[in-house]
Amino acid sequence: MKLKLSLIVTQVCISATFAQDVHIEEIDISENQLINVNRLSDEKKTITLKEEAVKPLSMNDALKKEFYVDFKKSSEYESEPYIRGRGNKGVPVFIEGMRLNAGHDDSTNLFGLTDIADIEVYRGANGAKLGMGAMSGAVVVKFKEPTFSDKKELELSGFLNGKQSFLSKDGYTTTMGASLYNDTFNFSVSGGINDYANYEDGNGDEVLHSLYDTNNFNASMSVKTSEDSYVYARYMRDKADSQDPYTRAYNAASDLWTYTSRPNDEGKSYFLGFKKEQFAGLINIDIQYFKNQMHYDYFIEREDAIKDQQQLFRDSDTHGVKLSAQKALDHHLLGFSASYSDMYISNGVRRFQAGSWTPWQSAFGITEGEIKSQMLSLSDDIQLDKLFVNVAAGYERVKRDVTSNINSSKFIADGRVPAALLGEIVRENTNEKDDLLSLSATIGYEVSPAFTPYLKISNATRTPYFNEQYGNNPNMGTQVPNQDLDNEEVYGADIGADGQMGKFYYTTAAYYQKYKDYIELVNTGYVTNSTNLPIKQFINLDEAVIYGAELMMGFEVFENIFAEAAYTYTRGKNKEHNEPLAYITPQKLTLSLAQRQKIGLSWEIKQELVDNQNKVSSVNGEVETSGYGLTDFSLSYAFGKVGLFKEATLAFELNNIFDKRYREHLSKVSSTSYYLPNEVGINGAIALHVSF
């Protein structure tokens, strides 16, 4: 077990809009607090990053505290949010109006949070407001608003964060920023880096290829055009170098272990926009142009002096515009949103043979692909005394053009795929247009402060990802394409209640999601001829359902000291084969006791109890996992104003205190994984935050 404790590393960079103000909000058990923090009847939960004592560097770090969010993890870097039985195939991720995973399910963790104010987390089908793919939830990342003063003289503000991990997880994070502004102008820059070594599991064993490092830089400029409006320009650049421990596999032919690395993931994003509070009877007017360029690497390497084996890259280029506004009318708040986006994807692959690289060529699956989307969304929030109603409708026109690169002759020549499957390996280009209509409606009534029941119904649709339909870059023939996949559609219903009785508060949700043409990865029953590996394929299930429950309750034991319990239960049913769906998280119970204060000492003791998962998909080849219990402890002290600093916070955390050996069910548990490492053993961190 590592016992090294390094000094906190910090680096001067700049803040993308204004200095991060850190508070650990004092918890006031009131109706307002319940609305802002806990109510599952709200369409979304907003995570305000400035309220975190330890500043999260990534989106996944920020989402970890939400009891209804899990993660499908391939590595510490390459993880995706998982909500109500679905990962990125049902949980789109947006930066403002720009969706990152419309055409593929690559890692959406490739952006830092130094320029981010808050993150909105949606639960359930939200196609009416967010469009294609919001089958079980969505994540929307929001930028900070620029700060303007009431003086012509320039002012300076900024922040500094440093975090050092130790014990099983050794590495550091540092972010810093500053902003220069007056009454009409704001110029800000910010950035951050982190660097983590291979972690150790509960046995003290090093998990090979689990190291990663990232860095990000942001710059923005805003100009005030009136008392309630401004224009802005923003640039983001993010890079990552990571490896994937779950891809470690033994190659009998070469007598070597291989693994996948991603040494040069890079994203560049550009935003131009205009915001105005009021105009011609409209409020909250927002116009934005966005552009994003992403580069992903997937390199297969050997544990040998000559590491090179195969290199694959995927590039995507996205651009678009979004316009939104609202209008207040009597008891109504009308909402309008219109958007256009265009994502183009290309790729390349080459192999290392006889001491040199072969020329780049298009990877098996697709040569290139393009998705264009035009979306219109209308909504109405109605408040009539204690009755609240929300209705929304969305129309989206989606066009997909794909140049296929399914190479049947290659499969035949290599003799990888049995003759019975060769009929699936055909080359057909795609030129499709889909008209998608989505609706949602929520109704609730405050019977009393102790009981506010609600009901929500909604639906959403998505087109198949390129990897699902074309089997892009199949691993030695272990995935065959299915170019006949249909769109997936879901209808969902939520029912629950929120309430508060004195110092006791609670929120509940029970949900049922019925899928038509659910897209599932299944075992074909065949194996590759040369390597005897199971061959899989994405297919449509005529019917599938996912249902479950979410519950959180709390009690103020003493002043500012709270006991809370949170529970999630998820089940998925493959109706076509009458068995469980694959990749469904086990039930989980979280217990915590915490003191939360704006100034002074705050602490939390948390126990997470996760059940075993033996309801697995045999047609997928999924494997069972055991249950486990983890104990975490965190401590922080907020000093308030200290000398030149407006705020200063020092924090400490210790996770998996009893050094448990465990494996998360959603971490690559399919039968095609040959090396299933355990998760991080006992690990801690010290963090510092200051703002000026």
UniProtKB/TrEMBL annotation:
Which biological processes are named by the entry's GO terms?
A: siderophore transmembrane transport
Q: Name one GO molecular function term.
A: siderophore uptake transmembrane transporter activity
Q: Does the keyword Transport apply?
A: yes
Family from the record: Belongs to the TonB-dependent receptor family.
Q: Specify the protein's topology with respect to the membrane.
A: Multi-pass membrane protein
Under InterPro entries, the record lists: Beta-barrel_TonB, Beta-barrel_TonB_sf, Plug_dom, Plug_dom_sf, TonB-dep_rcpt-like
- Where this protein primarily resides, as one coarse class? membrane
What is the protein name given in its UniProt record? Answer: TonB-dependent receptor
Keywords for this entry?
A: Cell outer membrane, Membrane, Receptor, Signal, TonB box, Transmembrane, Transmembrane beta strand, Transport
Where do the TonB-dependent receptor plug domain residues begin and end? 57-138
- Organism, by scientific name, is Candidatus Marinarcus aquaticus
Keyword Metal-binding present in the record's keywords: the answer is no
Any one GO CC term of this protein is: cell outer membrane
Every TonB-dependent receptor-like beta-barrel domain range? 228-657
**Cellular compartments annotated:** Cell outer membrane
